[in-house]
Amino acid sequence: MNETIFLEELKELVALESFSRDAVGTGKVAAWIKKRLDAAAWRTKLISVGKEVGPILRAEWGKGKTYDVLLLGHMDTVFPAGTAVERPFSTEGDDFKGPGASDMKCGDLFMVHLAEDLAREKSSGHVLLLFTPDEEISSVYSRPVIEGEARKAKAVLIMESARPNGDLVKERKGISKYRLIFEGIAAHAGVNPDQGASAVHECMRWGQQIVGLANPQKGTTVNIGTIMGGTAANVVADHCECVIDARVKDEAEGHRIDEALRAWAKTPFDDRVKVMVEGGMKRPPMNPSEKTEALCRKAEEAAKKVGLSFGWTKSGGGSDGNLTAALGISTIDGLGPIGGKAHSVDEYGKISSIMPRYAFVKALIDSLL
Predict the structure, then answer these.
(1) Which is catalytic among the residues 9, 68, 103, 135?
(2) What positions does UniProt annotate as the active site of this protein (predicted)?
(3) What is the phi/psi pair of residue 281, to 5°?
(4) What is the DSSP letter of 215?
(5) Contact 146, 74 (CB under 8 A)
(6) What's the rounded mean pLDDT across residues 314-330?
(7) CA–CA distance from 15 to each of 97, 126, 166, 184, 313 (Å)?
């Protein structure tokens, strides 16, 4: 692999738009990658996980009951169709840019080149690659496949971009998402307000309770992201909804929040308002086990061999590493090129990091095989 070819290929991948809910778009990315892996004699398979999203691309090298290593990448982005036309792939100084370039098509492309190198070397190891279509929507469709394959892996490498300072990730918070629905009774705000039961008022009274579920000492955060309800100032609102995001380091904290919301729904402030709670924990916390710590040391040793060094960081954002780590599988994250400002118009990756980071991850995989 060389830097110029990598950037040309990344430009092609970024142009293949793949918003999570765009099954056709993610399917095109899967087809592009599959063609490359088929040519390298990997055993590939497209796995349908429903009509809402594109397929998972599964690629296997070698044989055995367990995988020496499982590499995970996601093909979807948060950007709707048309974004790559408005903001196409580009380079500026040491940065490469474009929707999804850093999060995480550069990591997907690392996986492609690693696969080709292993094939060229006729590796005797047993390796599985999974390219998923729905990581940006919490892997709701891919999760059973990811977990099923991860249970057979000795180690899992998540190919998301490294942090802006070059650090890798070994710890992430768990994520819970909720939609609260308040159903009240409509009435005229001036003529007969007493005959109404305001869904908006109920939601507002819940607000302080919800925010109070946060626990900074335990790393638990709670955010009310959106509130929607009511029709006019002179109408007692009969409907309101709010969406909540909670992040937890300890899974028990997630259960505490869930139990509180469901208990409160049974005893609203105004008993004429019905409250429904939808959602729950989407990703468990990713906390490093002893086996993960051992994998971290192995990664550091591989980095030294190629003259690279980095630190380890914690992240409040989730990845598919949350799912595999929760199963007790040694998992580390951030093995792609250095990047930052994901999900924004300023998303970037560092060109100068491509070759050193690739050499590092190849050395790590060689050590695992």
Answers:
(1) 135
(2) 76, 135 (proton acceptor)
(3) -75, 120
(4) B
(5) no
(6) 94
(7) 12, 32, 26, 47, 31
Separation in Å, CA 368 to CA 56, 268, 294, 361: 24, 55, 12, 11
d(CA 143, CA 98): 27
The region that residue 347 occupies, defined by phi over 0 for left and psi between -120 and 50 for alpha, beta otherwise, is beta
Q: Give 220-234 pLDDT, tens digit per residue.
A: 999 999 999 999 999
d(CA 77, CA 19): 5
Q: What proportion of the chain, given as a percentage, has pLDDT over 90?
A: 99
The amino acid occupying position 105 is K
76 is catalytic: yes
Q: Could you give the dihedral angle defined by the CA atoms of residues 287, 180, 344 and 11, in that order, rounded to the nearest 10 degrees?
A: 80
Specify the residue for token string 């990591």: 107
* Torsion, CA 22, CA 161, CA 67, CA 50, rounded to 10: -10
- Does 135 qualify as catalytic in the annotation? yes
Tokens standing for 175? 């994520």
- The answer for residues whose C-beta is within 8 angstroms of residue 226's C-beta and 6 or more apart is 241, 242, 243
Cα 356–chain centre separation: 25
Amino acid present at 53: V
Could you give phi then psi for residue 149, rounded to 5 degrees? Answer: -75, -35
Give phi and psi for 49, each to the nearest 5.
-125, 30
Tens digit of each residue's pLDDT (9 = 90 or more) over 78-136: 999 999 999 999 999 999 999 999 999 999 999 999 999 999 999 999 999 999 999 99
| Burial class of residue 343 in the structure, from the number of CB atoms within 10 Å of its CB (0-12 exposed, 13-18 middle, 19+ buried) | middle
Q: Find, among 99, 116, 97, 172, the residue nearest to 323 by Cα.
A: 172
Q: CA 347 to CA 14: how far, in whole Å?
A: 12
